[in-house]
């Protein structure tokens, strides 16, 4: 099984990038694609890395789509769209590949720095839930996903570590480019589970995500989040209408 991975750089330091690279097992990962949305000069010379300079901030989804185009043109089986702010424990990559060989729907459980399970959408969120989360920071962490020792079957998964299979990408494409940032992972993960079956979360397969939650700290990003949410729910509304016409 040929597995590749990508990260999007936007003014991250060389130290941040190297910390991420040093956690990868290139016996499992065939290639790392770094899509650089920054304006500064930056390069890492490594035979296992393909570096793409965009020169401006394309957004998360558009940048990862570049990586998937390149990866799947080389007949990669699974490409992982990843955040830079992830930490993988020793042996993670061998265990993850073993899980994928068994069932390509397996994904890791995402933890916070304190080892608690990170709150993500695991079912399609309602508009009311989203309003509560955006404006009141409401936590709706319920279900087997949020219990470490249980296997979980979930509809949605996080874009911080989102695997895409070649068969899906060829027929359905990658991230929807109407989203510059936020909701692009939710929309794609839902389409993947509709096409291939729900995601399976295996006990013991875990990664740590340093979730900055910048939406709640930056008014500009809050507005972007809000606009993406409107696009997401509008799109779902029209999809529902079309389904019954």
Please characterize this protein's 3D structure.
The chain is α/β, with parallel strands linked by helices and 245 residues long. The chain contains 7 helices and 9 strands. It has helices at 14-21, 60-73, 92-102, 127-136, 166-172, 184-196, 219-243, and strands spanning 3-9, 29-36, 49-53, 78-82, 86-88, 106-111, 152-154, 161-165, 199-209. The strands form 2 sheets. The chain has a 5-stranded mixed β-sheet with strand order 3-2-1-4-8. Strands 5, 6, 7 and 9 form a 4-stranded mixed β-sheet that branches. The longest helix is centred in the C-terminal third of the chain and has 25 residues, at 219-243. The chain is globular and about 45 Å long. The mean pLDDT is 86.
Question: Roughly what is the average pLDDT, rounded to an integer?
Answer: 86
Unreliably modeled segments: none
Largest sheet: spatial strand order: 3-2-1-4-8
How many β strands by DSSP?
Answer: 9
Q: Please summarize the sheet with the most strands.
A: 5 strands, mixed
Helix percentage range: 25-40%
Work out the helix count: 7
